[in-house]
Amino acid sequence: MHNKALLRRDFDVIESHQVNAGTDALIVVDVQRDFCPGGVLAVPDGDDVVPVLNEWLRAAGLLKLATRDWHPPDHCSFEPQGGPWPPHCVRNTPGAELHPDLEGARIEHLIAKGTDATREAYSGFDSPELLALLKKHGIRRLWIGGLATDYCVKATVLDGRENGFEVFVIEDGIRGIDVTPGDVAQASQQMQQAGARFVRSNQVRKA
Ligand code: VGL
Ligand code: ZN
Predict the structure, then answer these.
(1) Nearest CA, atom 4, ligand 1
(2) Average pLDDT score over residue span 186-200
(3) Which of the residue ranges 9-18, 60-69, 71-80, 150-159 would you say has the lowest mean pLDDT?
(4) For residue range 129-154, what is the model confidence (pLDDT) as tens digits?
């Protein structure tokens, strides 16, 4: 009668998680000016992730990594080159900077991606440096947040699973573009089908 499933359905019992010091890494994906309101490729409410991810950046016991989209001025994903996006996150320009309110000083390694003009790179794992760092530090579990849910977050989460990591998606720390309505919902489904678990920050005990 009072089994777990029944309790969960009736009273919405919240599953809680805990950060494991030493084996867990935080990956903040592309929280850059151009992806936030006022930027050239603004994700709706993209800056809402900043206070959420700052809290994660202040937690102890996590390896803290971030990726940034870091394109050459003639990147193949840009409209003038026949790509789908307006020019954005051009390396060494203000639009490519991390959001000014993100506590970037707490980030231990900042990984550039999309640096090759001829290749799109949505996933942080497109930069071999990411996997190398995770291996070097003995990381087994990833906590991932940032922008955008339906592009770089999704790609990084799926690659994390492919590379054998346990992956938690910080649900309140992501926002999506939804070019076609439903893209974000579909991305969330894909990530979960790949075995990623969606958690809200307040369900996670951090050190
Ligand atoms: C991204 C579109 C183009 C992302 C990067 O960070 O999600 N989206 N480049
Ligand atoms: Zn890009």
Answers:
(1) 152
(2) 98
(3) 9-18
(4) 999 999 999 999 999 999 999 999 99
Residue 36 is a catalytic residue:
no
Task: State yes or no: is 89 an active-site residue.
Answer: no
Of 126, 150, 152, 206, the active-site residue reads: 152
Q: Is the pLDDT of residue 11 over 70?
A: no
Q: How far apart are CA 161 and CA 67, in angstroms?
A: 17
| Superfamily classification of domain 23-200 | Isochorismatase-like (3.40.50.850)
Q: Is the pLDDT of residue 1 over 50?
A: no
Cα(5) to centroid of ligand 1, in Å? 38
- The sign one gets for the Cα dihedral 188, 75, 49, 45 is negative
Full-model pTM? 0.94
Per residue in 82-102, pLDDT (tens digit) is: 999 999 999 999 999 999 999
**Cα(144)–Cα(66) distance, integer angstroms:** 10
